[in-house]
Write a structure and sequence with these properties.
With 494 residues, the chain is α/β, with parallel strands linked by helices. The chain has 13 helices and 15 strands.
């Protein structure tokens, strides 16, 4: 009898103790935070080329922290920016729409290059992303996240009207505010940085502080570093290291190498802060670039082209995601993806809702993150404007030495890519699996494929109401164009 009483007392004590222990062992949760949605660190670099990290093959730049993050997640080898230069690519990223919908076609609206060399009147477009559009930041902010944009904005005076609670450094300017060393003028949050602090370090320091301040709630950090946009300005204390380093076969620019390392060091600092705060396992990290690398300072070989061209080197960019518990580490994905896909992806990751009346051109990448596949589809680009050549750049990885890009549309479907040039009506067709460097135009060899893809491209332009330049430029001078091309070609290194 006594034994039975003791057993009952023991059972009652356990009924009390077990729930208490369970509460103590449960993960700490706070208001505004849920277990099934991650914090997100979205690192978005400027003019960072497809091969500018060690994990993508650079033989001179050093990126150990980025390499480690990439190994811990999924690397995408066929990721594309939605445009070949900054502003339109960023507008597509934030809106989830291709350029014909938001009408940001170029950096600025004025015609680029010499008037006598342009055969058509360009389509000016706009230089500000409409506030009538909901960005993914709006949606994520409404879902209860604390949102911050730190670094380059380039789509209006500041990002606060576009769904961000905090802005550090963001203005309509596309270049670093007065360079990479202070003073940075009136750039928000950068008026009082320590003397001699490199801009990338300043932004990453602000990023770590933002994470610390919001460690008890869900946060989204759009870390849109100015690096490695011009000016190519060395981080001074790192320059001797790279000046003494043997040049690689692919890369050899010592100043650029210091800028790349500054990015990597800054990301390393942020990763350390995440670890210290116990946030690593509940933080997804996305790494992306707005367009191809800066031609005079880096190289995307074997890709053809660089920032401003619609060949692969101008639009194919590095991309990876690390998401503990969701994305299998050490995986590589060869599915073609594009900047507009980030909108539905980020919303699905955060549980945010999109506005039903706003068109989205991308698809969520969540199936890929989970090891599944996407339905086959085409990717598109539309650039009805001009972008002049780099001064003194040669040899030229572009159609002619005067312009990195003349008015053009492009489509990728499977391994095939077709480009249509509006001045001449020329079509270029490439099979990217067999010819990643776009060295052989197959348009005349595969006329059926050329015709089919051209129709896909024309149908898409009609669907999105893409403006095509057709008005001839009265100031065009064919003889002046011919002489300029001849002179530049003759002076190009062989």
């Amino acid at each position: 009898m006594a034994e039975e009483v003791l057993m009952r007392v023991y059972a009652m004590k356990m009924l009390i103790i077990i729930p208490v222990l369970g509460c103590l062992l449960m993960p700490f949760r706070v208001e505004g935070q849920t277990e099934d949605r991650p914090n997100i660190l979205f690192v978005y670099l400027d003019d960072f080329g497809w091969r500018d990290t060690s994990y993508m093959g650079s033989d001179f730049y050093e990126t150990p922290h980025l390499d480690q993050l990439a190994r811990e997640g999924m690397i995408f080898k066929h990721a594309y920016a939605a445009a070949a230069n900054c502003a339109p690519s960023r507008a597509s990223l934030l809106s989830g729409q291709y350029t014909p919908r938001h009408r940001v076609f170029n950096v600025g609206t004025r015609p680029r290059g010499k008037e006598a060399h342009r055969r058509l009147e360009h389509i000016a477009g706009v230089d500000t992303l409409s506030t009538n559009l909901d960005t993914w930041a709006h949606c994520i902010q409404r879902a209860g996240y604390r949102t911050a944009s730190m670094g380059k904005w380039h789509l209006s005076k500041d990002p606060l009207a576009y769904g961000f609670d905090i802005n550090v450094g963001g203005t309509h300017a596309g270049s670093p505010p007065r360079g990479y060393y202070p003073p940075h003028g009136n750039a928000p949050g950068l008026q009082h940085v320590p003397k001699g602090e490199f801009l990338t370090d300043s932004l990453c320091r602000h990023a770590a502080s933002f994470i610390t301040a919001n460690r008890h709630r869900s946060w989204f950090l759009y870390l849109t570093l100015f690096a490695v946009h011009t000016p190519i300005q060395a981080k001074k204390e790192l320059l001797p290291k790279y000046q003494a380093k043997a040049p690689g076969n692919l890369h050899d620019n010592a100043k650029m190498a210091t800028m790349v390392q500054a990015v990597d060091d800054g990301i390393g600092h942020i990763i350390q802060r995440l670890q210290e705060l116990g946030l690593s396992e509940n933080t997804a990290i996305i790494f992306f670039s707005d367009n191809g690398g800066y031609g005079p300072a880096t190289d995307m070989h074997p890709l053809k082209g660089y920032k401003g061209t619609y060949y692969e080197g101008g639009v194919r960019v590095p991309f990876f995601i690390k998401w503990p518990g969701m994305v299998e580490p050490e995986t590589v994905n060869n599915t073609p993806i594009i900047g507009v896909d980030l909108y539905p992806t980020l919303l699905e990751m955060t549980g945010a809702s999109a506005r039903k009346d706003q068109i989205q051109d991308g698809v969520s990448l969540m199936p890929l993150f989970k090891g599944k596949q996407l339905d086959s589809r085409s990717l598109f680009w539309h650039f009805p404007a001009y972008l002049q050549s780099y001064r003194g750049k040669g040899p030229f990885e572009q159609r002619d030495p005067l312009f990195r890009s003349r008015p053009v549309s492009a489509v990728r479907q499977g391994h095939w890519k077709l480009m249509e040039f509006f001045e001449s009506g020329d079509l270029e067709l490439y099979h990217l699996e067999k010819d990643i460097g776009e060295t052989r135009n197959l348009a005349s060899i595969h006329p059926d494929k050329t015709k089919a893809l051209h129709q896909v491209l024309k149908d898409w332009r009609q669907q999105v109401n893409a403006p095509v330049p057709t008005i001839k430029n009265p100031a065009f001078d064919p003889e002046a164009e011919r002489r300029a091309i001849t002179d530049l070609t003759a002076s190009t290194p062989r």
